[in-house]
């Protein structure tokens, strides 16, 4: 579409007539990069996507043509794709006298050359998603798909070469020869970032334009020239000049993020446990396990999280080996056992990876029960809750009751109580009402939960008890799960007696909490009305779910307790309307009467 430029107006400078076209395509490419990296608000993304809905092929072809011409200009002048004049003979040395966007090199001035060269990384990067979107369009025919694939095949060499050359020049950026004026200003980090973005888009789409071996070599260079230097790890047998990470500054965030995205994309689409992917993911994780890296370094946590995400994809594949699963299981348990040592995001990635490891056939139920007991003893409650949830027969809870009771009964350590309560609540809520898990929790630690419900509900707010509200809420949720379990157990006389006895005990605690904390329409002298409201809401739930047992349980309360519960239920059902007050009697003033 733009193989030759249109004849310019005689009044214009024909040597710079291409600049507006380059500027428009360059701008669209930059916006597409922002969209792909989720850096724009939805209010901007929606109109942009609507504008390009039927123009992906045209914009993609324009972007690819500018990118290829930029590479032609640099290679034709014996320069690297980073603008350095110290280039060796490369794999894409091509004639540059006639380009795709200009008919003859004499027809463009240095300003136009500089614009094409500056635009090539961004245009090459965004041309890939433009062309892929055109190929995936439901209106695309075989001709359109074939044309787009041809352009992608042309882009692959400059993306790979640009990545290799830019990574090699990052550490030597200050000593590059920039004698050619129009080639100055190219940043190796920016080129590497854009090339990684385009390569990752191809990988993620499943397009086979890049051979697997070439992808593996690119990932190996990312490991040795980005990941390891950023973590201050010396890569063995590499030509890296600087391995202290000093060249990766705060401005290198985009480059590191694209490198991490490339690793995760490779792990997601690889058919099996690729050697290159395993090597790139395991080396940083091994350094973390050996404590040879500082988690306070600028990009260490970002890289390690991407490695964990990559292992998440690899472990979930059928080809994952037993030794790999065992090694990752040990690493994840160590990470979860020290939550204060790692950033909060580590917890979410690690728990997902732990579930993948436990789903592997090499980790049987017997080993999971032993791990559940060990995690309870170490009070690694995140791992314990995942293990107990997977053991649907309740054996995980049953084998760890001793450690669980010890943590719940430690009245001198509220944080220890709160952590254990949160884990019990997570396990209880994940189980079905008829599951043995709920029954084991009720029988094993039900008394401790009820005691903590009363303790947290009747203690005045004070410093050092910041977890009081969350702990009380966890106790309430566990109690409601226990109630649902008992109502699902059956309608026999024995089951009804057990349910009634449980509700009488629970309601007595509700009465104490409501009398201490009050309700929203009956504010207390001390305490928190929100706790009283939780109890009222729990009582209403019981009344609506099992009205017969509710009435029977109310008869087991004292007269005062029954009155408090009736008042709380009535207030909850009426939305805590303000209580009507008797009108104030006006006093008669005799001064108003005169003779």
Can you give me a brief rundown of this structure?
This protein is an all-alpha fold and 595 residues long.
Structure description:
By secondary structure, the chain is mainly α. It is 64% helix and 0% strand. It has 23 helices and no strands. Helix 4 crosses helix 5. The longest helix has 29 residues. It is elongated. 43% of the residues are buried. The N terminus is likely disordered.
* End-to-end CA span: 108 Å
The number of helical runs is 23
> What form results from the Cα inertia axes?
elongated
* Strand residue percentage: under 5%
Overall pLDDT: 85
Low-confidence stretches: 1-12, 237-246
Question: What is the number of beta strands?
Answer: 0
Largest sheet: none
Give the ordered list of helices and strands: HHHHHHHHHHHHHHHHHHHHHHH
User: Which structural class do the helices and strands define?
Assistant: mainly alpha
What gyration radius follows from the Cα positions, in whole Å? 34 Å
Helix share of residues?
55-70%
List its salient traits:
disordered N terminus, single chain, mainly alpha, 595 residues
Fold topology:
Elements: H1 19-36, H2 42-51, H3 56-76, H4 110-136, H5 142-170, H6 188-205, H7 212-230, H8 253-269, H9 275-289, H10 300-315, H11 322-336, H12 344-359, H13 365-377, H14 381-390, H15 395-398, H16 401-408, H17 414-430, H18 436-457, H19 468-488, H20 493-517, H21 529-545, H22 547-554, H23 559-573
Helix pairs in contact: 1-3, 1-4, 3-4, 3-5, 4-5, 4-6, 5-6, 5-7, 6-8, 7-8, 7-9, 8-10, 9-10, 10-12, 11-12, 12-14, 13-14, 14-17, 16-18, 17-18, 17-19, 18-19, 18-20, 19-20, 19-21, 20-21, 20-22, 20-23, 21-22, 21-23
């Amino acid at each position: 579409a733009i193989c030759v430029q249109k004849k310019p107006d005689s009044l214009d400078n024909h040597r710079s007539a291409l600049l507006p076209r380059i500027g428009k395509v360059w701008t669209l490419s930059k916006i597409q990069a922002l969209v792909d990296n989720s850096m724009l608000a939805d209010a901007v993304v929606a109109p942009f996507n609507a504008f390009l809905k039927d123009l992906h092929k045209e914009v993609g072809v324009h972007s690819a043509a500018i990118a290829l011409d930029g590479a032609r200009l640099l290679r034709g002048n014996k320069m690297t794709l980073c603008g350095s004049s110290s280039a060796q003979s490369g794999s894409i040395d091509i004639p540059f006298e006639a380009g795709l966007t200009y008919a003859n090199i004499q027809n463009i001035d240095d300003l136009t050359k500089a614009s094409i060269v500056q635009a090539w990384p961004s245009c090459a990067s965004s041309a890939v998603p433009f062309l892929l979107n055109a190929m995936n369009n439901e209106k695309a025919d075989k001709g359109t798909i074939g044309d787009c694939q041809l352009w992608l095949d042309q882009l692959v060499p400059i993306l790979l070469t640009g990545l290799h050359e830019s990574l090699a020049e990052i550490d030597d950026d200050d000593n590059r020869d920039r004698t050619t004026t129009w080639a100055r200003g190219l940043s190796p980090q920016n080129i590497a970032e854009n090339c990684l973005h385009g390569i990752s888009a191809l990988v993620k789409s499943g397009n086979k334009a890049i051979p697997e071996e070439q992808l593996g070599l690119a990932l190996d260079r990312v490991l040795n020239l980005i990941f390891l230097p950023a973590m201050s790890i010396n890569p063995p047998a590499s030509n890296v000049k600087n391995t202290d990470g000093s060249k990766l500054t705060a401005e290198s965030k985009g480059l590191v993020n694209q490198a991490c995205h490339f690793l995760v994309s490779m792990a997601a689409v690889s058919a099996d446990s690729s050697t290159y992917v395993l090597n790139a993911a395991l080396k940083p994780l091994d350094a973390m396990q050996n404590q040879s890296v500082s988690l306070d370094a600028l990009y260490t946590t970002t890289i390690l999280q991407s490695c964990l995400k990559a292992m998440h994809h690899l472990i979930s594949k059928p080809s994952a080996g037993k030794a790999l699963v065992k090694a990752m299981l040990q690493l994840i348990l160590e990470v979860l056992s020290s939550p204060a040592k790692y950033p909060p995001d580590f917890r979410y990635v690690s728990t997902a990876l732990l579930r993948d490891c436990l789903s592997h056939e090499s980790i049987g139920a017997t080993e999971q029960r032993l791990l559940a007991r060990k995690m309870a003893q170490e009070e690694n409650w995140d791992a314990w809750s995942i293990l107990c949830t997977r053991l649907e027969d309740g054996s995980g809870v049953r084998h760890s009751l001793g450690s669980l009771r010890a943590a719940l009964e430690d009245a001198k350590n509220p944080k220890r109580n709160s952590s254990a309560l949160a884990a019990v609540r997570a396990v209880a809520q994940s189980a079905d009402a008829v599951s043995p898990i709920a029954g084991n929790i009720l029988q094993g630690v039900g008394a401790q939960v009820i005691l903590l419900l009363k303790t947290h509900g009747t203690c005045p707010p004070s410093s050092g008890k910041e977890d009081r509200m969350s702990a009380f809420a966890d106790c309430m949720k566990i109690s409601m799960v226990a109630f649902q379990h008992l109502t699902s157990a059956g309608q026999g006389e024995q089951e009804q007696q057990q349910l009634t006895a449980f509700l009488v005990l629970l309601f007595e605690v509700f009465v104490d909490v409501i009398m201490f904390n009050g309700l929203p329409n009956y504010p207390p002298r001390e305490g928190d009305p929100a706790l009283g409201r939780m109890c009222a809401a729990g009582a209403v739930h019981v009344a609506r779910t099992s009205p017969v047992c509710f009435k029977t349980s109310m008869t087991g309360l004292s007269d005062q307790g029954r009155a408090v519960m009736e008042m709380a239920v009535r207030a909850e059902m009426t939305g805590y309307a303000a209580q009507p007050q008797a009108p104030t009697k006006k006093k008669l003033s005799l001064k108003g009467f005169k003779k």
